[in-house]
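[09:14] KT: can someone run the structure on this one? pasting the chain below
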Amino acid sequence: MNVLSVNVGRPRPNPWKRLPATGIDKRPVTGPVAVAAPGPKGTGAVGLAGDRVYDVKHHGGDDQAVYAYAREDLDHWEAELGRTLGNGSFGENLTTAGIDVNAALIGERWRIGATVVLEVSCPRIPCATFAGWLDEHGWMRRFTRAALPGPYLRVVEPGEITAGDPITVVGRPAHEVTVAVSFRAFTTEPELLPLLRDAEGLPAADREAVRRRLDRGTA
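[09:31] RB: done, structure tokens below
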């Protein structure tokens, strides 16, 4: 299990959300990249040095510090879409190999390289920028149906990450809520929402949303 590439965004116009820019255009970089907790959402800061988000209401901050997507899942989409998808194509900061990122548990911890420890926090939920960036008919519906969202991660121990760094799972919580299960619960299968009460590693806002939906009986 390792990091194939570390990807940092290049600002570009965002006509899909009428924002001044988007950082979804991630490109692999060479050499080590500093990783640190960015602080609360609202500033545009993310975990990787040199990167940022521009939809500060919905993205960035400690619980969405780093986004990971598996090369194996990109390969799945290459075959499905009939087009080449380079590392970083889905806006991911880390393109991984050899680890099923969607089977990772919420709250699971990964050591990457010598110093960095990241914790799985929540699944990526597709948005209009992602749909516009991919420019595929019905993309949000197709992506949601596949339930291969990839996880956001928070930074537990800062340091540097370099392409080729090994990934080691160093902690797993005592529940069975995976990234894929939580994504399905939030999107297509609300009957799974009661399972998320056990996933203490979810962001506080997500836990509150689950509580409200369960209280309203919308699961």
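[09:33] KT: thanks! The helical segments are 71-81, 128-134, 139-146, 179-186, 204-216.
[09:34] RB: yep, looked fine to me
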